[in-house]
Amino acid sequence: MSNDRLRLVLRLNALSSLATGVLLALAASPLSGPMGAAPGFLRIAGLGLVPFALFVGWLAERDEPSTNLVSLVSACDFSWVAASLYVVFAMPITGLGKAGVLAVALVVEIFGSLQLLYASRRGRSRIAA
Protein backbone atom coordinates (compact mmCIF):
# COMPACT_ATOMS: atom_id res chain seq x y z
CA MET A 1 0.00 0.00 0.00
CA SER A 2 2.80 2.46 0.86
CA ASN A 3 4.39 1.77 -2.52
CA ASP A 4 1.16 2.78 -4.29
CA ARG A 5 0.94 5.97 -2.21
CA LEU A 6 4.59 6.75 -2.85
CA ARG A 7 4.16 6.35 -6.58
CA LEU A 8 1.01 8.52 -6.51
CA VAL A 9 2.81 11.34 -4.65
CA LEU A 10 5.73 11.09 -7.08
CA ARG A 11 3.32 11.30 -10.03
CA LEU A 12 1.57 14.33 -8.55
CA ASN A 13 4.93 15.95 -7.86
CA ALA A 14 6.03 15.30 -11.46
CA LEU A 15 2.80 16.66 -12.95
CA SER A 16 2.69 19.79 -10.82
CA SER A 17 6.41 20.44 -11.39
CA LEU A 18 5.97 20.06 -15.14
CA ALA A 19 2.89 22.31 -15.19
CA THR A 20 4.63 24.96 -13.08
CA GLY A 21 7.77 24.75 -15.17
CA VAL A 22 5.94 25.10 -18.47
CA LEU A 23 3.84 27.98 -17.12
CA LEU A 24 6.87 29.88 -15.83
CA ALA A 25 8.87 29.25 -19.01
CA LEU A 26 6.12 30.18 -21.45
CA ALA A 27 4.42 32.97 -19.51
CA ALA A 28 7.46 34.57 -17.89
CA SER A 29 6.84 37.98 -19.43
CA PRO A 30 3.15 38.32 -18.49
CA LEU A 31 3.81 36.93 -14.99
CA SER A 32 6.79 39.18 -14.31
CA GLY A 33 4.71 42.32 -13.70
CA PRO A 34 2.25 40.94 -11.15
CA MET A 35 4.98 38.90 -9.43
CA GLY A 36 7.61 41.61 -9.45
CA ALA A 37 10.29 39.24 -10.76
CA ALA A 38 12.40 39.53 -13.90
CA PRO A 39 11.12 37.46 -16.85
CA GLY A 40 14.54 35.83 -17.23
CA PHE A 41 14.48 34.69 -13.61
CA LEU A 42 11.02 33.15 -14.02
CA ARG A 43 11.96 31.53 -17.33
CA ILE A 44 15.12 29.94 -15.90
CA ALA A 45 13.23 28.66 -12.86
CA GLY A 46 10.59 27.15 -15.15
CA LEU A 47 13.08 25.55 -17.49
CA GLY A 48 14.90 24.06 -14.51
CA LEU A 49 11.73 22.33 -13.39
CA VAL A 50 11.21 20.44 -16.66
CA PRO A 51 14.08 17.91 -16.35
CA PHE A 52 13.30 17.52 -12.66
CA ALA A 53 9.66 16.73 -13.49
CA LEU A 54 10.68 14.22 -16.14
CA PHE A 55 13.02 12.48 -13.70
CA VAL A 56 10.38 12.34 -10.96
CA GLY A 57 7.85 11.01 -13.48
CA TRP A 58 10.30 8.32 -14.57
CA LEU A 59 10.90 7.37 -10.93
CA ALA A 60 7.16 7.19 -10.25
CA GLU A 61 6.75 4.60 -12.99
CA ARG A 62 9.28 2.19 -11.47
CA ASP A 63 7.71 -0.87 -9.82
CA GLU A 64 9.87 -0.22 -6.76
CA PRO A 65 11.14 3.37 -6.71
CA SER A 66 14.62 3.45 -5.21
CA THR A 67 14.59 4.81 -1.66
CA ASN A 68 17.86 6.63 -2.39
CA LEU A 69 16.37 8.31 -5.46
CA VAL A 70 13.20 9.21 -3.56
CA SER A 71 15.42 10.78 -0.90
CA LEU A 72 17.23 12.71 -3.64
CA VAL A 73 13.92 14.01 -5.01
CA SER A 74 12.83 15.05 -1.52
CA ALA A 75 16.17 16.81 -1.00
CA CYS A 76 15.57 18.71 -4.23
CA ASP A 77 12.06 19.57 -3.04
CA PHE A 78 13.38 20.88 0.29
CA SER A 79 16.05 22.87 -1.56
CA TRP A 80 13.27 24.47 -3.63
CA VAL A 81 11.49 25.41 -0.40
CA ALA A 82 14.67 26.98 1.01
CA ALA A 83 15.26 28.90 -2.22
CA SER A 84 11.64 30.04 -2.15
CA LEU A 85 12.08 31.45 1.34
CA TYR A 86 15.16 33.29 0.14
CA VAL A 87 13.17 34.76 -2.76
CA VAL A 88 10.36 35.86 -0.45
CA PHE A 89 12.58 37.49 2.16
CA ALA A 90 15.55 38.74 0.11
CA MET A 91 14.16 39.75 -3.27
CA PRO A 92 11.96 42.75 -3.97
CA ILE A 93 8.90 40.92 -5.31
CA THR A 94 5.28 41.97 -4.96
CA GLY A 95 2.84 40.74 -2.34
CA LEU A 96 1.18 38.62 -5.01
CA GLY A 97 4.60 37.24 -5.94
CA LYS A 98 5.32 36.37 -2.31
CA ALA A 99 1.95 34.67 -1.91
CA GLY A 100 2.49 32.64 -5.08
CA VAL A 101 6.01 31.60 -4.14
CA LEU A 102 4.90 30.59 -0.63
CA ALA A 103 1.90 28.63 -1.95
CA VAL A 104 4.10 26.65 -4.32
CA ALA A 105 6.69 26.13 -1.56
CA LEU A 106 4.01 24.71 0.74
CA VAL A 107 2.91 22.19 -1.90
CA VAL A 108 6.53 21.24 -2.60
CA GLU A 109 7.18 20.79 1.14
CA ILE A 110 4.17 18.46 1.37
CA PHE A 111 5.41 16.40 -1.58
CA GLY A 112 8.91 16.11 -0.11
CA SER A 113 7.62 15.08 3.31
CA LEU A 114 5.08 12.56 1.99
CA GLN A 115 7.68 10.97 -0.29
CA LEU A 116 10.00 10.40 2.67
CA LEU A 117 7.14 9.16 4.85
CA TYR A 118 5.91 6.60 2.32
CA ALA A 119 9.43 5.49 1.40
CA SER A 120 10.24 4.88 5.08
CA ARG A 121 6.97 3.01 5.67
CA ARG A 122 7.73 0.81 2.69
CA GLY A 123 11.14 0.02 4.16
CA ARG A 124 9.68 -0.82 7.60
CA SER A 125 7.01 -3.09 6.11
CA ARG A 126 9.70 -5.10 4.27
CA ILE A 127 11.67 -5.53 7.48
CA ALA A 128 8.57 -6.74 9.35
CA ALA A 129 7.66 -9.26 6.64
How would you portray this structure in words?
- The structure is a single chain.
- The chain has helices spanning 2-26, 28-35, 39-60, 67-90, 95-128.
- With 129 residues, the chain is an all-alpha fold.
- The two termini are 14 Å apart.
- The mean pLDDT is 93.
| Count of extended strands | 0
Integer count of domains: 1
- The helix-strand sequence is HHHHH
The value of Rg in angstroms is 16 Å
What is the molecular shape? elongated
Number of helix segments? 5
Strand content: under 5%
Largest sheet: none
For the termini, the CA-CA separation is: 14 Å
What is the share of helical residues? over 70%
SS content category? mainly alpha
Q: What are the salient characteristics of this protein?
A:
129 residues, mainly alpha, elongated
Which helices and strands appear, and what pairs or packs with what?
Layout (H helix, E strand, L loop, with lengths): L1 H25 L1 H8 L3 H22 L6 H24 L4 H34 L1
Brief overview, please?
The chain is mainly alpha-helical and 129 residues long. It has 5 helices and no strands.
